[in-house]
Amino acid sequence: MNRRDFLKTSLGSAAMAATAGVAEARPNLEPAPQAIGMLFDSTLCVGCKACVTACKTVNGNKPTIVGEDLQWDSARDLAPETFNVIKVYTDGNQLTKDSEVDGFAFEKRSCMHCVDPGCVSVCPVTALVKDPVTGIVTYDVDACIGCRTCMTGCPYNVPQFDYDNPFGALHKCEMCNQKGLERINNGMMTGCAEACPTGATLFGSREALLDEAKKRMALKPGEVYNYPRGDVRDPSSYHEKAVPEYRQHIWGEKEAGGTNVMHISSIPFDKLGMPPLGERSFVSISESVQHTLYSYMALPAVVLGGLTWLVKRNTDGDDEGGEQ
Amino acid sequence: MSEHYEPLQRRVVTVPFVLLGLVALVGLYYLGVRFVNGMGAVTNLNGGFPWGIWVVYDIVVGTALACGGYALAVTVYIFNKGKYHPLMRAALLASLLGYGLGGLGAIIDMGRWWQFYNLFLPWQMNFNSVMLEVGLCVSAYIIVLMIEFSPTVMEKFKAEALQARLNKVLFLVIALGVLLPTMHQSSLGTMLIAMGWKVHPLWQTLHLQPLLAVLTAFTMGFAIVVWEASLSSIGFRRTPETHLLSGLGKIIVGLISVYLLIRFGEIIYRGKLSLAFAGDLGSLMFVIETALFVYPLVVLLSPKGRENGRSLLWAAVSMLLAGSLYRFNAFLITMDPGQGYSYFPSFPEIMVTLGLVAIEIMVFLFVVKTFPVLPRDHQPAADAKSAA
Ligand code: SF4
Ligand code: SF4
Ligand code: SF4
User: Fold this and answer.
1) Based on the structure, what is the number of domains in chain A?
2) Each residue's pLDDT tens digit, A28-84
3) Is B384 within the bounds of a domain?
């Protein structure tokens, strides 16, 4: 058994067993009532990166220039100026799209807008918050102290700190809904979903997207399906395409409490770079442990009372404490 | 004037002192670069490794090394073992400096340091955040350590009235000084739970994290007391306090035994033992770490080992390394955030940490030579005066 297998199997169940006995154990958080999300269908992605460019345009981010290649945005991974990238999976002779062996496939990387977000739980100054209605995880630069705990607590390594700037800040996708942009609040969809020519990045409510994903899982490979583009609840257009062989796995339905941005594909997700996650979110465990230990500061107060009594007893009749 | 403590009558500026000063200057130079050009100019931090040695050494390991005052306070005041009191002031001073270094490390590592005060604004606080708890507790503990150490300063300046007044409430401060480290040292462990799958399974003990963190803080705290006391008796050629230290040896044996039982119990219970023999980096680090814990256990188990100053010193060194490695392993060395991220500290990064440690040692040397910190030497060694 290697590290990854171990994490996926044993650790998940151990976590359940371990916290079962802890008083006040908090379960995973629930999806927001009107959670907004996206569904990324890897089998529809053609790797055009229109979404990468659109994301940079709407968020006012500069292109990533590597060497003298000034005409290309060479973003290869998430970065302070890159909230969204398309990564490629390759194997063998790389001939067949969406084939695990001798094939290739595309994968989108951006904030997953977790239902039980690690970044929100660990941030000491509430700079990251999950919107109670839309579930969108946004960032407040005026609150942030730059401790980067959020980066350690995010299971997907999404938040990026701008190390090269002496007055740097944290950067991540806020579903195009940060102050000043607020596309969702204004009834628009996300920049990346709007730009996607194939509907690989689909916008909508988490509920509608989950239904759509389940529908695709149930389709027979080879039959023709009318794929929507834009907003799944009100598609801007459709296109017909033969159904690929989907993995029966909707990433983000359950992983670590689920995510509002979900992925489906015909390649196993660990090959696409998804982390080894069980159903229980790690922050639900850390918060349970923390709150059990402290019981909202009552326990430390009681302990302090006891300690004070002991110390007083052991220092009485001595000017500096302790017998000499 | 205290009957029990006295300043060490030695020259402050010595050759080692100057060498430390040079290291400090190099560190301060790179620190300047960090504030002018950003952290990227001096560190190798990246998207997968947001915390490097500044956090893991200065705060996670450094505060544990600074637990001498905590460990000794528990022994002296809670378990009423007053005979260890002579070691108290040096331990408190080292703790104050270590925690000061931790606080300083936190500020220099803070990407948006000019907004640090948000940590203390109640309406900004996130009470689910373990980091908030660490930040608040460490800040409070630094103040507590200052108060705990202040009698030494008052004694020096003969502020007897003030000292008498402080003594009336000192017991409360001492109690806080026991509670606060217990809280934030355990939280440093809880922090690893939230880091989830990135932490190697051999170190991801979930709900046992806080307990293991407190236990290692204790072992390191006692080890640093033994180490400092032996070293200052060797370095300053004073009468060794071996009779006191061997008693601490017994406590240490108990602590390590409990620690190893829990550590291995968890690993066996969750079926992770095979990972210890996987032949990769994780298993190698685990074996080294375990050996470093077992060595002092074996040495201190025999009364002979406990009474011999030299073997006591080596046991302490091994234990310091063991506890430090445990934390380094969990937070950095075996941590794997995936996606091809890797981290090794840069030269400037290392120099900043070394520079801060150098300053810490320089202040320690300065203070023990000018303030009544060390226990009065009852049988001055014949050559002590000439060595000065
Ligand atoms: S939702 Fe907006 S910010 Fe997020 S990846 Fe898409 S375009 Fe970029
Ligand atoms: S993916 Fe990471 S940054 Fe995004 S909400 Fe989840 S924990 Fe936060
Ligand atoms: S870096 Fe900013 S957003 Fe992230 S945890 Fe620290 S304070 Fe919160």
Assistant:
1) 2
2) 999 998 999 999 999 999 999 999 999 999 999 998 988 877 777 888 899 999 999
3) no
CA distance B250 to chain A (A): 20
* Residue type (1 letter), B337: P
Yes or no, beta carbons of A293 and B51 under 8 Å apart: no
Burial class (CB in 10 A: 0-12, 13-18, 19+), A208: middle
Cβ(B66)–Cβ(B222) below 8 Å:
no
Q: Report the alpha-carbon distance of residue B296 to residue B321 in Å, rounded.
A: 11
B53 with B159, same domain: the answer is: yes
Lowest mean per-residue pLDDT among B207-221, B260-274, B296-310: B296-310
| Residue A311: predicted pLDDT | 78
For B107-118, the pLDDT digits (tens) are: 999 999 999 999
- CA B187 to chain A, closest CA, distance in angstroms equals 7
| Rounded Cα–Cα distance for residues B382 and B239 (Å) | 10
**Calpha distance A174→A162 (Å, rounded):** 16
Q: How many domains is chain B partitioned into structurally?
A: 2
User: Is there a contact between A55 and A192 (Cβ–Cβ < 8 Å)?
Assistant: yes
Same domain, residue pair B300 and B276: yes
Residues of A whose CB is below 8 A from B128: 121, 283, 287, 290-291
d(CA B50, CA B343): 10
User: Is there a single domain that holds both residue B68 and residue B40?
Assistant: no
- Rounded CA-CA distance A248/A217 in Å is 6
What lies within 8 Å, CB to CB, of A304 at 6+ separation is: B175, B176, B179
Mean pLDDT of chain A: 89
pLDDT in the model for residue A227 = 97
| Ligand 1 pocket, residue A160 CB under 6 Å | no
B110 and B249 inside one domain: yes
Domain assignment present for residue B385? The answer is no
> Within this chain, do residues B76 and B31 fall inside the same structural domain, yes or no?
no
Answer whether residue A18 shows pLDDT above 50.
no
- Report how many helices (DSSP H) and strands (DSSP E) chain A contains, helices first: 9, 12
End-to-end CA distance of chain B: 23
Q: Are residues A230 and A305 in the same domain?
A: no
Please indicate whether, in this complex, the C-beta atoms of A151 and B47 are within 8 angstroms of each other: yes
Is B285 contained in some domain?
A: yes
